Amino acid sequence: MPYWLATARVEQATDWLTRFDPRYWTVNFPRPMMAAATNPAPDVLRVDAVFYRRDDLAGIIWESVDHHDHPLLGYDTARDYRACRLRFRWRSSGVRALDQVDGPTLTIEGRDAAGQVRAWYVRLWNYAKGAPEDAEVTLDFAALDAGYALPADRDSVWTGDVDRMFVSLVAPGYDRSAAPLDAPAEGWVELSGITVDGAGAVLAIGDVVVPAHDLRVASGYDDHYHLTPARLLRNALQLGYRGAIDHYVGMSHYFRLEAAGAGAETRWLVSRRGGTLNAPCVAWHADLARRAAQLGYELIWSLSYELLDRHCWDDWKQRAADGTPALTGWDPPSTLLSPTHAAAMDYLQAVARALVAIGVGAGLAPRFQVGEPWWWLTADARPCLYDASARAALQPVAIPSLRGALDAAQLATLDRAAAALARSTAALAAAVRGDWPECVTYLLIYLPTLLDPAVPGARRLNLPNDWAAPAFDWLQLEDYDWVTAGATGASERGAALVGATLGYPAERQEYLAGFVLRADDRGEWAPILAAAAAARRRGVAARYLWALPQVLRDGLVYWQGEDEMDAFDDVLFPLALGREAEVAPGFSTAVTTSAGGHETRTVAWAEARTRYDVGPGVRSEADIALLLAFYRARQGPARGFRLRDPFDWQARDVTLGHGDGATRRFALVTRYGDATRRITRPVAGTLRVAVAGAATVAFTLEPLGVIVLDDAPAAGAAVTASFDFDVPVRFAEDRLSVVRATYLAGSAHSVPLVELREA
């Protein structure tokens, strides 16, 4: 699949962006508070916030360097602000007003005229005209003074080398202590009528538009809660993603919180007091849904059983037999909600209904995904089936590990737990369908955990039979650990097994390809995109890249072209016509002869490229009719096909390579002495593979003649193969000349074919 990992914009298309464009501000804040930035109108920036502690402070940020957009779509770096002036109307409620101590302050971080790192603190009230909660603010960056009271506290600001600037927001009860506020405080700020003038008022911005292609994209609120929806959707649209966006609401930013305990023992736990979702989350997702609908996107609202551990009620958590909670490997860790806990499941149902309601309110069709529901397994494969609610509902016996053999009582425990998991997902989907009977439902499952051969009990526990169709409208699969490890065979077998087990054919499946956790591993996009191509070949209805934040970070550009698979018809040239083909292998060699008669030969091709002429096989009118039909179907030279070389079509016990204890992928080849020829079109059913002389069937054949062994061969072990093969070729010319010789006889003087290089 054609792709590119861009690192910078060089010659690509650009446009102009007004500096301080409302779409390009971000927010930041300490947890547990929450804030979100949206754009109700083209010249408006709105920030909604909820404060829980007396030291909570949110920043509305403008950065001189674009760290967030795709490299081809970001704005240019410009640190000098002296030639621009910013104006806006400030309106606020529920935050410290402009005229108060610790009121909104513009912090400017950068370097002074001497190059020394420093920060300036500009009180916005000093540049405001109007009321403390409704004023016109003008900031001339060429004549700006920091300080609380001017001119007494004047500190001239040099804005010629600025890294970033941000406006601070605090609650009315702010006093810099970590104590809880008397009650959670919701507030908002709007900067409207934003205008900028001066020579520095505009920036160049990337304006690449990738043609719409066949991949969709997933998004994650936990990864880009701090950006505006308008900014994210611009990136998705201009990178060519269309159709539905699979939007995971995450596990750490959507909920309301309430205080439990007092003083240093205060904990902030998820709550439904005052609503289900926090106000910034509602505002952000309403803006996302509205803009998605305008751009022709659909949204699949994805919700999992995962919740940030520090904010989860203790009795909601899945637990191992020793009482330890289920904890993921994230930092800070998340936990998993128990499917048997009524309050936890009621909470998830309320969240799901609230999210889908936002989409429906924006005019989107209701779509809801239950994301990766499972009973957690600890690192040593202990199932977390022993929280109080699970003990009461399941009466579980002790299961020290799912790695080994289990007795009848332990298997019965797994069956009861699986049934309880299925009931919880059914109730979750039913809660949404209770509001919107037409809601399309999706089940997302993660194959490497469910089908881990080292943990055979995982499948019985976390793949309930009650998930079988038509429990959900769509089955979605992901398997990124297999993909990035090169276990393509496991991917193919896993998808087939789960699809057959649950009764979802390929056309009722969707596939999530990804993801790349760390920027240093951006090379993993190659196998991820290959896995997406494999999913296309097995006929899934849609494929999503997981996820947009990593696509932007790594500069991934994907485009849909007529690649080797699309431009090749996997059909054999009519065998009778090809048996008498003339065969002419050729090389490209430049020969230079010196004045003294000595030659220098430069070989341009490492392998021969063979030309064929199948004209001699055409002898009758029936042959001509067959040839013409085949030629038209291939559109002349446009599409490749298979040809059986009458002199070279078998390989026997060919050494493909030797094991190193890690490599599992080996390309099919034939050998001619020291010369090697890649084989990309083996004949189905003829491939036999051996490792260290022992035949094996534990392998998968990938497209273009690559085998992937289930297990990496030991160091030094020879991997050999025997197979029949065809040669990929195309017609060499745009015209085909045939003649009728006599009654029922015909001929084609020449029908040249040329070999295709596919690998």
Automatic annotation (TrEMBL):
Top-level taxon: Bacteria
Residue span(s) of domain Non-contractile tail sheath N-terminal: 18-206
Pfam family, one: NCTSP_N
Every Non-contractile tail sheath TIM barrel domain range: 211-555
Membrane spanning residue stretches: none
Residue ranges of every copy of the DUF2460 domain listed in the record: 569-757
Protein known as: DUF2460 domain-containing protein
Source organism of this protein record: Sphingomonas citri
